[in-house]
Write a structure and sequence with these properties.
Length: 205
């Protein structure tokens, strides 16, 4: 785990108070992972994270991903997270960065689609160039997606857009962010996760 990249993540969290992963855990999988966490913080949003170079590159998407190629979903880059964070579900206590309830809304793997001269263009490079094309294999979100950086001006906050590419999985009718609102890991709603976390606190006392 590159220490430098994660120092900002660690600084902003009190790891003894919060049950989030510390970044020390080791997770090894054949394919790079992706996760979408629904996060009921000061504003409800979806955290879209994909594994690149040993960390989870992250974007906050207020409306969440769409399955309709006509939708362009604003994706604001946020802190890199450790890979182990992909399975974190629970409540980040008040007063901590990102305070609120976190649900693992979707989890799976992805395949990099970008090529140059018949060879895969490394994800690190795609990220730097501001254009990521991936084939996602999740339970709710699947098929080809593009993440594209639109704000390139120096000194301005970068802006990205997440867009579904036209393929067999594209659908203007499916609307998983409104019809599928339970955890892909535990089948719980946000309020059930919150309730269970309160129960856990009482048992710890
Ligand atoms: Mn968040």
């Amino acid at each position: 785990m590159p220490k430098k990249i994660l120092s900002s993540y660690k600084k902003r969290r009190n790891l003894t108070k919060s049950k989030e992963p510390s970044g020390k855990e080791k997770v090894k999988l054949k394919h790079p992972i992706f996760v979408i966490q629904k996060h009921d913080a000061s504003h409800m949003h979806y955290d879209f994270r994909i594994e690149i170079d040993g960390v989870l590159k992250s974007w906050a998407i207020p409306k969440g991903p769409s399955t309709n190629p006509k939708d362009k979903r604003l994706a604001a880059p946020t802190d890199d997270h450790p890979i182990a964070y992909a399975t974190f579900e629970g409540v980040i206590p008040e007063g901590n960065y990102g305070a609120g309830t976190v649900m693992v809304w979707d989890l799976g793997t992805y395949k990099n689609l970008r090529e140059k001269d018949g060879k895969e263009l490394p994800m690190e490079k795609c990220y730097k160039l501001g254009k990521i094309e991936i084939d996602i294999k999740g339970k709710k979100i699947y098929g080809e997606y593009v993440l594209i950086k639109t704000q390139m001006q120096e000194g301005k906050k970068p802006k990205w857009l997440l867009i579904k590419m036209k393929d067999k999985d594209a659908s203007a009718r499916r609307n998983p962010t409104s019809t599928q609102n339970k955890s892909v890991l535990t089948n719980r709603t946000l309020s059930e996760i919150k309730k269970d976390s309160k129960k856990g606190e009482k048992e710890d006392e």
